[in-house]
Amino acid sequence: MAGSDSRETADKLATYPTFAHCSRDDLLAFARAGSRFSVPPGWSFVQEGIPSDACYLIMEGTAKVYHERSVIATLAEGDVVGEMTLRAAGRRRA
Question: Does an H or E element contain 64, and which?
Fold first, then answer.
């Protein structure tokens, strides 16, 4: 992510409780390591059963989490998706 974009992203991350104890340097490193993308409403950006290769932070809007075709959660701005399976190097469960 470009310099000013990284700083703006780090500023936004600092507003989320998940990142409350991170230093400014940590937030900048996290912002630089990632990239922003968006998906149209109703589209999936992760799918149950596929190998985990990334985790995601919702910075705008909401996302529904399905397990066996049932909604089990709704995630919103500041929520992290996919971090547990990424750490365990397994397949996504929901």
Answer: strand 62-67
